[in-house]
Every structure is written in structure tokens, then in C-alpha cells.
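thread from #wetlab-drylab

HS: before we spend reagent money on co-crystallization trials with fe (iii) ion, can we at least see a predicted complex? here's what I'd submit
DV: go for it
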Amino acid sequence: MSYKLFLSSIMAASIATAGLADEVNVYSYRQPELIKPLTDAFTAQTGINVNVAFLNKGMIERLVAEGDRSPADVILTVDISRLAGAVEAGLTQAVQSDTMSANVPADFRDPDGHWWGLTTRARIIYASRDRVPEGEVITYEDLADPKWEGRICTRSGTHAYTLGLLSAAIQHMGETGAKTWFEGIKANLARKPQGNDRAQIKAIWAGECDIALGNTYYMGKMLGDPEQVPWATSVRLDFPVFEGSGTHVNVSGVAMVKSAPNQEQALAFMEFLTSPKAQEIYAEKNFEYPIAPGTNPSDLVAGWGSFTADNLNLMEMAAHRADALRIAQEVDFDG
Ligand code: FE
């Protein structure tokens, strides 16, 4: 009797497998160089092909326009505000998975399973080795101190990375405090906000400014580009804190599209992305901080120093995004 049961369960399993198109469709804001090693490893392990559409912008608009006919199963993006935006637009579905719950700490996922964090990155200070003594940058609040007048470079005040930091500042300082703080940073800028994170570090190297806001992984990227190595070696990474808390971090993450046509394959892909194996690929290829228990940053990243992350809840941070954008516009940060 047990033999018969065994046989029938095998048959059920193979029928279920045969019924699946062996593919999963991904819309990604993350770059091909990072995603390719992950999808290759997933396909090698499961036989499921991954089709990736790489987008620079407009993912939410595209999903809304496609509606239930969208081929997309999974979205990949950085920034909690983009993940939260997809959830708010009703484009995602709740995913429950014991594997993913074990791999992703509760602070880094939606309680209902609509989005799941995969890696973290800190937004820190790049400081000139020549012109900024160690220990000079302690807090984010300090960036508004007049001692930095004419010495700070940063990218646009309306970029997602800046808005994430400003959202955290609203949570810590209140709206009025955050606005005053942001005005103080504007008053200290060496030049109008322009360019990406790496352009700020180039400006430090060129002597235009002394400190810049930037995400941690760009140090690794610069060290891999011969033209940018001199920029990288001209700076030191300092990990500031919000007073009484920690260093500002944001996530990259994944969500399943509400209308996903290939749900089982999508779940398998999401489970793979949270696995220690995939997290190590993120850590090695893009110099991010993996979050699965037992995983570690690459030796290079670990060498930049350890830090305590801000204890701010990511969803609360995302909830301040509209206020952050309004403040950035009110203080005319880019003007
Ligand atoms: Fe980036």
C-alpha cells in the first residue's frame, strides 16, 4: 500500500511539472551585469529560463498599462520607496514562503509578503583623505554645520537616494527639523547638485569639494575601473549616524506581480534570490551587504568598516517620501 501511495505521489509531481512553462519573466531596474550571474545560476540549478526586461524608468506605468495581460512575474529594484510604490499601486501580490522567511530578516520584508529585501546598502560619507581628518564626520546632523560651508558635493535632491535619506531625517527630526537640516546642507554645497554618486567622488579628487554623500558599493565599482581608481583612493568611507541611532541603509528587493502568469516559477526564482548562494553573488558582484543569515559581505566591503544600521522601519521611511520630495522642492535644493 505504501508503494502505491509513493508511485501516485511521483505521478502527481511529474504532471504538475509538465504543466509549467519553464520560464519566469522579470522586469528589472537592476543592471544586466549584476542580474546575469544570478539568472545563470538559477537556470543551471532549476532548468527554468529567466527572461529579463531591463528598464531605466517607468516600470510602474508600464505594469499599470499592461494590466492583467502583463507578461511580468517578478520585479527587481533598489529603494524601498520604489518597492512600496509598486505595492501601493496594487501591482504586487502577497507571497508566503518558509524559505524566504528564513532567509530574509523581518525588518527587511513586508509583513504581508508583498515585497522582500535582498541586499542592503548604506548611504554614507566619502571624505577627502587629504583635507578631512578622521573622526570629523560623526552624524548626518553635522552636515548642516557651517564648518562645511562650500565643502559638500551631492547628487540631486529629488533623486531616490537623497529622498530616502531625507525621509529618514523626517522620521528622526520631524518635518520642520528635517527641512532646516536640508537647508543647512544646501548652504554648505560646493556646487549645485549634479551628476551621479561617483561624479561627487570625482569632484573630491579634483579638489572641488571635501565630502560627499554616496552609497557604499560605488567604492567597489570605482576600484574596478582604471579611470576611477584615483577617485576611489582619494577618499575614505565614513559611516555617519543619525543622532541616537545608526547609519542610513536602504534595500534592493523583489516582489511578485499580481497578475504573474508563471507563479510557481516566480516563487522558485524569488526563493533562489534570497538564498545564501545568490546573496553571495550580490555581495561579490555589486559590493552590497547580503542579508541572509550566515552570509557576509565580500572581504573588500568588510574592509570598509562595520556599522550599526539606523533602527528606522523601512515602511515608515517610505511613508515620508512625498513629504521629502516636497521639502526638497521647497528649499529648492537643486537651484
Ligand atoms: Fe546606485
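DV: Confidence is low (pLDDT under 50) at residues 1-19.
HS: ok that's useful, forwarding to the group
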